Amino acid sequence: MLHSSLTLQEQVNDVYEMAKAEKREHLELELNRLTRRHYECCRPYNSILSARGYSPEDTKSLEDIPFLPVRLFKTNKLSSVVDEDIIKVLTSSGTTGQQVSRIYLDKETALLQSSALIRIMQNFLGKKRLPMLVIDHASVIKDRNSFSARGAGIRGMANFGADLTYVLRDEDMSLDFEVLEAFLKKHKGSPILIFGFTFMVWEYFVQPLLNAGKSPDLSQAILIHSGGWKKLIEKAVSNETFKATLKQAARIERVHNFYGMVEQVGSVFVECNHGNLHTPAHADILIRSEKDWTVLPPGDEGLIQVLSALPHSYPGHSLLTEDRGILLGEDDCTCGLKGKYFKVLGRIAQAEARGCSDTHDRTEAA
Amino acid sequence: MLQDRLIKAFSEGLEISKDLVTDELSFQGIQEWDSVGHMTLIASLESEFDIMFDTDDVIDLSSVAVAKKILEKYGVGPF
Description:
The complex is a heterodimer. Chain A is of the alpha/beta class.
């Protein structure tokens, strides 16, 4: 039973402070509440759960909260609010011809996402906003009513930045050295925030610097990056190589990757100073067997399930991803932050094959 | 006058008519004040009053009335 009445906001505020027993109590309460809410308000979700024999009277432990495959958001409109309350539709990044996920946000969910992201990032960046360099071009956020995953990421991170400066040219994504140098001159001696997508940072920032033989002094910078390693794994670039090259190319030593997805904005898992991804208090992960979906213990590789207390406007509080990962432990990472800590190992092979072939097969996800 | 400068900063930051800038105007209340508009609004307020908001205040700044309170913390005002 729950002894204290903690609001969701208070749980969000606890970020990396809440020990596992207390976290489980609060998270189970919120997640069961969300399952019931979406069961009542989202018809397709109701059908799926009914078919699985769910009853709204059920209260589930964390491991038994029903989960949806993440690709269901590509094939179905999954919303638990009336259309008038939708203030933003997020879409996943997909290459041409691929179906994209659509995530429907109401005001409450959007605000929860913003405030959760703030609590998480303040832990790494502090409360002061830093001059911010974006490794992207400005037109990535031009369609304000429908954000791509990249646009949503930049919009979210922009709350931590000041003097937001896009360093790639709109036309051809080339690195604008003049803009970069002017920005560095203006903020000389002050800490700065650099944000970009992992592959973009590597391809459009690090490579041009190396090729041009320029090595700007960015030792004051904190680089936050995300978006997945698929393209860099193809180039045989590991996280260790990535970090070492940033240090060599621009003297950047503080680098934090994060794992997150457009289906659960605000529940991001940031890499700590010891190189592990951490769950914040309002979100969790489980590793499941690829064969029978049973929950696996720490040390075993499997599919990552993500759980989040934030999605109120769409049934995305419990999702089975197509990413493989490994749980390392909980509350005892040597960095000192609480929460489960884990590593992401990459996409499942099946998802890659599908991504390259016909993606208009609706039957498998229904 | 401070009030005029505040209205100017809102109107320029959100690219809306000055008439729309009342105490009640709030985040997500009009199409222009969405998360993208919020970024330019913050920049506009900061440059008009030569201040720098903390991240908490960027999130909390959810209406014109709240903006006045927050600005006072930074030594701008009272309105």
